């Protein structure tokens, strides 16, 4: 089967052995230091792919930060600073194309709390009261991160996807078979939000410093559901502390 797999990849087994990998013998010129560096590189990959927990102690001592970790942290801090210093009302006007738009009612204090980085933030607003602006404007203002929206209703997910796309915000529904890699907003059902696949995806977002916010939309629907998602939502809510 290995030979068949090599032929399927358009090369012979000889070429595969010479070009793509080493045999069981030790690589020529290897040193103890080189093998230690190989192990550090493998550890970085394992943690990036969530095969092991971030910060897990290595037998070589304290793990050095990889260059991509520093870059990801700088990007996260830039998004936080951009959100904290931006005139969000002016940003909402640019986003919607309505120069006379103003935050109204609960929108204003809720947006200020989000801008200050408070967590959790609870906003009780009527239907069509502008709740979605509370996560659309930050995603529009400080792109590069990911906002998770737990949406219990199918109709809401379709409408929210359409609205985000019209505003130029990348928004996709969660699919375990095709995890989104670079979306500003990801819509997920309560059932999927507590699944192992999605938890792994969340851990990856946290590890790469891309998780900005977790928003539970229509939380009264989740709390009143006969399947009782309250314990799972409480578990998910603990991750809100990772938001910017």
UniProtKB/TrEMBL annotation:
Any one Gene Ontology BP term: double-strand break repair via homologous recombination
GO MF terms listed in the record are: 3'-5' DNA helicase activity; ATP binding; four-way junction helicase activity; nucleic acid binding
What does the entry list under GO cellular component? chromosome; cytoplasm
Query: Which InterPro entries would you find in this protein's record?
Result: DEAD/DEAH_box_helicase_dom, Helicase_ATP-bd, P-loop_NTPase
Q: Which residues cross the membrane?
A: 133-156
**Sorted UniProt keywords:** Membrane, Transmembrane, Transmembrane helix
What PROSITE patterns does the record point to? HELICASE_ATP_BIND_1
The residue ranges of the Helicase ATP-binding domain are 112-244
Which family is it part of? Belongs to the helicase family. RecQ subfamily.
Q: What is this protein called?
A: Helicase ATP-binding domain-containing protein
Organism in which the protein naturally occurs = Aspergillus felis
